[in-house]
Please model this.
Amino acid sequence: MRILENLYYSTEHEWVRVEGEKAYIGITDYAQHHLGDIVFVELPELEAEVEAGTEMGVIESVKAVSEMFSPVGGTIVVINEALEESPELLNEDSYENFIAVVEMNNLEDLGTLLNPEQYEALCAKEEQEGK
Amino acid sequence: MILKRTPLFEMHQKYQGKIIDFGGWELPVQYEGIIKEHHRVRTKAGLFDVSHMGEIEVKGDQAEAFVQNLITNDAKRIVPYQVQYSPMCYRDGGVVDDLLVYKFSTEHYLLVVNASNTDKDFDWIQKNAFEGLDIKNVSPDYVQLAVQGPLAESILQSITDFDLKTITFFHFQPQVNIADVPCMVSRTGYTGEDGFEIYVSPDQAAYIWEEILRVGGEDIAPIGLGARDSLRFEAKLPLYGQEIDKDITPLEAGLGFFVKLDADDFIGREVLQEQKQNKPQRTLVEFRMKDRGIARSHYDVEKNGKKIGWVTSGGYSPTLEQNIGLALIDRAYADPGEMLDIIIRNKPVSAEIGKGIFYKKKTKKTNGNESRNRPLTQ
Model:
């Protein structure tokens, strides 16, 4: 399972890559692995306002429907429409394929997120509890 | 609650199955991934642990008459070593369970029932038993494996001297040595592919499992419950709790073929007879999503903002590469071509009713033997 440096992570298994005021958001390798074959992605709407921790999309695998949350607040400025046609991209490389870009309205949201070491510890804990 | 393990639990660990709680059983939902496993069964072969299924033995002079009374199909139409699929109903026509009837003789049957229904079924069967019958829940005596897929026969044939071609669709042999282990083998399954179900004693199960994987090599792999469900769904095979249930009759679920009203009396017959005459108010339809979205079991189905039914099974079909589903809806809206709204996360998403949109089963095998002894099921 891969965890990249230079990213922020949420406890809901999203990653955030910050470029200025913009936050690229996707799901982690751990998340895609646990979801299994992803067959459907419901993206947020462009220009929608999101609050940190609220639903911004839905990811469906063969077996399960999972909500995706925005780790930061702001406005959706880009959505990755390629995922509508090819949801399996998230299984192939969940870090290369972001879900959406949020123009952040509060940079302090980033302070609530996990660093790679903390996220790795979270995954290890969940893995243990899951078994 | 303590989860039950099948005698193959160590095999699931060895092959790195992702273990889940499945109706109280610790079983693998997947090994390599549901879609990959799904395609493997459609194109090559897969090995399933279905030991959680229940087996109930019925013996006695009156066994045939009793089984006949219990199920909606006509048990008298099958000969020894034939298998029959049938719903088993309550008096109100709702379904207790669907099962496979293995006939050894008119005095000896084995009923194979759904895992989570085994105790309920056993109670129901005992409650309705005729006097003098010997009825036993023999589930712990059997491990059940399924070998399914176009290469199933050739793989299995390589470890048995028994000519498997002589076991035709929905027939079985009580004594087949597989890798020198005595097994009961039927040409049955729950995938829409050709294949076999193997009943073996628990202490030999892991050995047989390993032997099948060994001789199958690259052509076979263990398959989890996720693909078992996607395979059965895509082939439009009913699942208890979804297409059929205590509140859904077999006629509503499109299983009229397995309700033989002209046979001897059986539990639920009166209600089903009446329902057949008046046509059931609800019926099961196939649909294809027209807009983006995946229909899931128990989502509401609406027409002009009014609820007309619900999705029984729905999802992505890996072989057809489409989002399809089955819904139990008001008969008035059930014609092919009708548009439906599937309510997905509070939003209506458009779907169209079709016919024949599901995967065409590859199960029917014909040869000389079968023309004399036609399978009466499916």
Remarks:
- The helical segments of chain A are 29-35, 82-85, 89-92, 116-130.
- Chain A has a mean pLDDT of 96.
- Chain A is about 25% helix and 35% strand.
